[in-house]
What does this fold into?
Amino acid sequence: MPTLPQRQRVAAYAVVLRTGEDGQARVLLSRLAPRISSGELWTLPGGGIDHGEHPRDALVREIKEETGLDALVGETARVYSAHLPTVWREGARQDYQALRLVFEAWVPTDAPAPRVLEVNGSTVEAAWVLVGEVRDGTVPVTALVDEALEDHEPFRLQRLAAYAVIRRGPTILLTRISRRGHHTGRWTLPGGGVDHGESPIEALSREVAEECGMDCEVGGLIGVDDVHFSGTAPSGRHEDFHGIHLLFSATVADDAEPRPVEVDGTTDAAAWVDVCDIEAGRVEVLAVVHAALAQAAG
It folds into this structure.
């Protein structure tokens, strides 16, 4: 048998996940053009790396061409190799090897619906596809999609934050989460993340000043609360998130009235909220508020 010409192709692809309002995970996929696959077949967005092009730059370009979306790409990738000793490519039989670098990538939460921009390319459609329908075979996908989803590990983030429990008679000081935060429109305690090297008390004083326009005196630690979940972060990245919340008692001046100071932050309102309205469910709050009220009462 004559020796077939050898061809090696290096390409970059992305696993782009998001959680929908229904709580179900979806993956961004591209449907191969009929000239590539005679039947319906979906694959990860991505493609060949041009000579001299960085793989991450190539992937950003390919995602834009195939889905119309601007993506951010992670720093590391998994490597997959497929050797096809005899395959038809570009009008001839070849000994073909495909090297695929698969990165994690993400797009903004307010990104438009995906649509193909490239004309006469290798893909003809882009869509957010339920991961469950990929796994059960409802949506036909390339082997690379199955392998990449099987190996994928969501970005793990552990965040330490400090929050203030500030009471005034029957009310408690709360802040409302803006469209830039997770759980938009819900109310939570004033406070936020502790920066590297910053003490929790310093962080809490800073956050209360930014979110409520108040100087506060931080008291003792009431308790510790935590939350663990997987989902889409405000950045658009799919994360395995663990939040640790330090709950402090605090006081402000008797005549202090809250007003957010930070521009384009995760807080768009601050107010004194009646605890009875919280307990009756008339004000939608995060679980940390209930935890703080219970621990303060105890």
In short: The chain has a mean pLDDT of 94. The first strand starts at residue 6 and ends at 19.
